[in-house]
Design brief:
Blueprint lengths: L7 H12 L15 E5 L5 E6 L2 E12 L10 E8 L14 H15 L10 E3 L3 E13 L4 H15 L1 E2 L2 E4 L2 E4 L8 E2 L7 E8 L4 E4 L3 H6 L2 E7 L5 E7 L6 H35 L5 H4 L20 H11 L10 E2 L7 E2 L17 H18 L11 E3 L7 E3 L10 H13 L1
Parallel strand pairs: 4-6
Antiparallel strand pairs: 1-2, 2-3, 3-6, 5-6, 7-10, 8-9, 11-12, 11-13, 13-14, 15-16, 17-18
Helix pairs in contact: 2-3
């Protein structure tokens, strides 16, 4: 699958932004993307994140016959694999022009600069030497693969340790890490590549171009340098003509960047050494919870989840009390209970089925008046207490029984006369 070409509008937008000294990710002209270095479980396995560009380097070794021209020197071999997982533009099973270019640049950067003591890799002169193989796998491509590959390769070589060997006569014995401690490689210096992209025939310059900036650039300059300001290799591509002043300015910028990256590599190696010595989690076990083994990992959430209950209780205490959903009952008259004041009934009754609440209350009052008028008027003493309730079961409740009524004098005489006749 070939790479999707950029539209004219997108190309013009990128070039216009570069003219105004602006970049898509907010960086300045000479700024590098964030670099993160992690290690695998075994020695010689290194992961490098350069922004969204992710590269893995793995170093291995084996005993082979030396070259006839150099019988006392070991062999250093580099191999870069551009996987379709990194970009849909990479095709599996065949070497592209970019992979050949990166392989040659790595060989010039490491082998021709003599950064590794190859003579220390000789076991038996003319018979057996160590062959060091560096495999670089691209996990995600977002531009500037050469810089990420060079950082991963030199870090993996510094992290790698070869097995110890012994020679008794013609017999060569290779010891396991449990029998004897492995031996690190002899590395004189650490060459690191720094890429510069040029636009509009060298008018504008950018450091560490991303994938979209590489599509619209006119030329690329790669300078490999160590922290001692020694240029290990230099290569220009794109057919652009550069002035001497431009190359000198790029070399000065590269010297600053290389010193910073070298310090970062040294700190990463020191931290990994301390973690392995202390028995802490490192390598694959340490990368699992942080999802580092994936090409595009998720960023950590900025929200702290510690002491959640205590913070929640503090927020609840500081906040105002919530309003009551049901108001307290109001008693406007004795024997009457009302929830809410000056509120209409909301029992879901339809308007067509009945009258309003006010009309019903007026009818009930009229009925109570009629009942009071129909009842006979009775004389009640001051000691008698009568209470009329609103319940349907009984209308009149007398708290005290009735007392015998006293008769008048005329009534008493009539009763006495009737007794005499009988």
């Amino acid at each position: 699958m070939k790479d999707t070409p950029l539209s004219n509008c997108e190309r013009d937008f990128l070039l216009k932004a570069i003219e105004e000294k602006k970049r898509l990710d907010g960086r300045q002209t000479y700024d590098y993307r964030n670099i993160k270095i992690t290690f695998g479980t075994d020695y010689g396995c290194c992961f490098v994140d350069l922004g969204k560009t992710r590269v893995m380097a793995q170093v291995s070794c084996e005993l082979v016959a030396p070259k006839e021209t150099r019988p006392n020197e070991g062999i250093l071999f580099f191999n870069i694999e551009l996987s379709p997982m990194a970009s849909p533009a990479f095709e599996p099973g065949r070497q592209s022009e970019l992979s050949v270019k990166l392989n040659r640049q790595l060989e010039r950067c490491f082998r021709n600069s003599k950064c590794i003591d190859t003579e220390s890799l000789c076991v038996v002169s003319g018979e057996k030497v160590w062959q060091i193989r560096v495999d670089v796998h691209t996990l995600n491509h977002d531009g500037n693969l050469m810089d990420a590959a060079s950082i991963a390769a030199i870090t993996a070589l510094c992290h790698f340790k070869r097995p110890d060997v012994s020679i008794q006569g013609e017999e060569i014995t290779v010891y396991t890490p449990e029998e004897r401690d492995p031996i690190p490689l002899s590395i004189y210096h650490m060459p690191i590549s720094v890429s510069f992209s040029f636009f509009q025939q060298g008018t504008y310059l950018l450091v560490d171009p991303c994938e979209r900036e590489e599509r619209v650039m006119d030329g690329l300059l790669m300078i490999a340098m160590n922290k001692h300001r020694e240029i290990c290799s230099i290569q220009s591509s794109g057919g652009i003509m550069l002035l001497k002043e431009q190359v000198l300015r790029c070399s000065k910028i590269a010297s600053v960047k290389v010193s910073e990256i070298t310090e970062l590599i040294s700190k990463a190696l020191e931290n990994d050494k301390k973690a392995r010595k202390a028995g802490e989690r490192c390598g694959f076990a340490e990368s699992m919870p942080q999802e580092r083994i994936t090409a595009l990992k998720m960023d950590e959430t900025p929200v702290e989840m510690k002491d959640v209950t205590e913070k929640a209780e503090d927020i609840i205490k500081k906040s105002e009390a919530p309003p009551r959903t049901v108001p307290s009952p109001v008693v406007p008259a004795p024997g009457v209970g009302q929830v809410g004041q000056c509120q209409q009934n909301s029992w879901g009754l339809e308007e067509e089925d009945g009258e309003s609440v006010e009309e019903e209350e007026e009818e009930e009052e009229d009925e109570e008046k009629m009942l009071v008028e129909e009842q006979p008027k009775k004389k009640v003493d001051q000691g008698d207490i009568v209470e009329i309730s609103d319940s349907e079961e009984e209308e009149v409740v007398i708290l005290h029984p009735e007392k015998p009524i006293k008769k008048s004098s005329s009534q008493q005489k009539e009763a006495a006369s009737s007794k005499k006749k009988t």
